[in-house]
């Protein structure tokens, strides 16, 4: 029997309180180990999709299933356990700026501790070792005691990647991970995400604004427009004209013509 999907969206609709439809009846299965690139114009619903998957937003209708478990109505410990398997990478890095690189990376382990231990920073020796090794993987071990706000944007994003590696989730949601970075640094960060995908088998879902990066690093491309899926295909089978059409926000009919 085929593996169950790592992420499943079943008829998912998200309507914001002001009536804006963020997602409109989305159905998607994302398989384990995939590298999915989500593409669409500003306002298409990409961030809404990401935020719905780990339930930073509650959806209005439908169901989202993570590795066989519904996150839609999960509560308390069950929700925490599902979320532990979902790592986030943000455009703005989301590091604690005044803390050291090591402490930032160790926060990837917080979900594995009772609250009181993580509050008092009582991380085990093993976890400190894990954090250090993760920093080595992204070539940031020499900055382990630097303060996060002493680093460049690209370095901060690599620390965020080390944090997610230390968390050891099954899924990584990367919301415009390279939007604040120059082209060379962007490729470096994408290489690090590729490493998490290929060496650690993590399933990656990334919003990307760059066609070149989507083509080079994505395995599957999903186009979104007005909260709906307008294209879904393997990157290797998607011709350049179709890429251009998705990126320019064309309709489903125009893209698939
Ligand atoms: N908190 C909110 N309240 C009301 N409407 C919202 C909210 N967040 C997003 N929206 C609306 O939902 C739609 C989808 O927004 P979303 O942020 O998901 O788009 P996006 O594709 O990620 O855009 P961008 O590329 O600019 O980040 C837009 O019309 C947006 O204005």
Note down, in words, how this protein is organized.
With 257 residues, this protein is of the alpha/beta class. It has a domain at 1-85 and 172-179 and 204-257: Rossmann fold, CATH 3.40.50. Helices cover 36% and strands 23% of the residues. It is built from ten helices and ten strands. The protein has helices at residues 46-53, 76-84, 101-106, 115-119, 125-137, 153-167, 183-200, 211-217, 240-247, 252-255; strands at residues 7-15, 21-30, 35-39, 61-66, 69-70, 86-90, 171-175, 203-207, 220-225, 228-234. The protein has a six-stranded mixed sheet, sandwiched between helices. Strand 1 (7-15) and strand 2 (21-30) form a beta hairpin. The longest helix has 18 residues, at 183-200. The protein is globular, with a radius of gyration of 18 Å. The structure holds adenosine-5'-triphosphate. Adenosine-5'-triphosphate is lined by residues 16, 18, 20, 22, 40, 42-48. Residues 7-251 form the ABC transporter domain. This is Phosphonate ABC transporter ATP-binding protein. It comes from Lactobacillus jensenii. Keywords: ATP-binding, Cell membrane, Membrane, Nucleotide-binding, Phosphonate transport, Translocase, Transport. GO terms for molecular function: ATP binding.
